[in-house]
Design goal:
Blueprint lengths: L12 H6 L1 E5 L21 H4 L9 H4 L6 H10 L6 H5 L7 H10 L4 E7 L26 H11 L3 E7 L26 H18 L3 E5 L10 H11 L4 E2 L11 E4 L12 E6 L18 H13 L2 E7 L9 H17 L17 E2 L3 E6 L3 E7 L9 E3 L6 E8 L6 E5 L2 E5 L9 E7 L1
Parallel strand pairs: 1-2, 1-8, 2-3, 3-4, 4-5, 6-7, 7-8
Antiparallel strand pairs: 9-10, 10-11, 11-16, 12-15, 13-16, 14-15
Helix pairs in contact: 6-11, 10-11
Length: about 450
Amino acid sequence: MNEFPLSGRLVPEWFTDAKFGIFIHWGAYSVPAWAEPIGALGDVDPDVWFKHNPYAEWYWSTIQIEGSPAQEHHRTMHAGRPYDEFLDAWKAELFDPADWVELFARAGARYVVPTTKHHDGIALWDAPGTGTRNTVHRGPRRDLIADLADAVRARDLRFGVYYSGGIDWYAGRRDPVLHEDRMDDGRPHEAAYAAYAHRQVLDLIERYHPAVLWNDMGWPRAGRAELPDLFSHYYATVPEGVVNDRWDSAHADYLTSEYELDRANEGASCWENTRGIGFSFGYNQVEGPEHMLDPAGAVRLLVDVVSRGGNLLLNVGPKADGTLPQEQRAVLEGMASWMACHSGAVHATRPLEPGSADPQDGGPWVRWTRDERHVYAFVADVPDGADGPIVLNARPGLLDPDTAERLDGQPVKAESGPEGVHVTSGGLDTPLPTAIRFAAR
């Protein structure tokens, strides 16, 4: 990890306790809502990725790549219309921010980070320098960021903002990105764009006081000398704010990974994994259940991330009318049902000391967390009809087996054995984890 100019700052406890946040990718790209669901970032050959980009929010770029299926889709389904016509077609007429946030809160999210300007350069607030090319003057004709900020804070969650500083296909450079090795060719580094982006981030700070300042795709070279002052101003305005790591190594409170990319960052003292419920962040009408997490998969992802000391920033991609796709709502509702009795084993917990207890991945699946008084074992996939107790490979002296209790209230018995803790309990053969709490020794 690079030495950052403002390094040494302690990360606010609210962020390390939060464990779970909701990302929102919503924009004019939600109107065509189309991409090829080819796989997860980091699992797909880079030579294939951009021409067949599964990120629906990259639609404007992908349709410019000659021979891409997205270009053919745009020609046949939308007659090759200019991208900005999607802004005018985006009405958000059914948008109910309080409904969204109520679901996010029940699912266990403690912070919410919407996109304020993605790579297409369309701002979801009346951003300086955008003229009428924003949602206040066109399309929804609302300050969507203010609406979300009010709803999030009314539910006592933390409100953050995403901003695409390193790519802007309208105010910056418009050439499509063809390969990750040529990513910098599509990034605007000029002074005029640097000033434009700087002014907009300052405006976000002043208007919304975001608890998370989440930049993407780096920062223009011409503006990097001003970043230390920008961060100092941000912390003066929001003393408990946090800054992510996507500023071209200028500064970071925490590191990020995305799907399977940059997994090495998950060894940092403070980190966050982000991904969509499917393979796209923006709503993609092509995605089906086979491309998406189910509720058990989402819970297991959250538990795994938290057990290793990270936060999960799970994305929803609303439809253009302002509704959350039913498949995404179902995942969050499943998480909400599980969180109703298991949140105490997730929020404000920490990973176990290395060597205390090992994760297990097959017959059964096991992950661990702890707080000041308790150790929690999450158990799933116990073989159906297995004879005898299951063995949790916790080291001697870590926990008191006599105190075992399931957070869902079902009976459980535990005792020490030579290989670890022997647990007997029914109904652990499902993919959805069950948390067993022990008093810590």
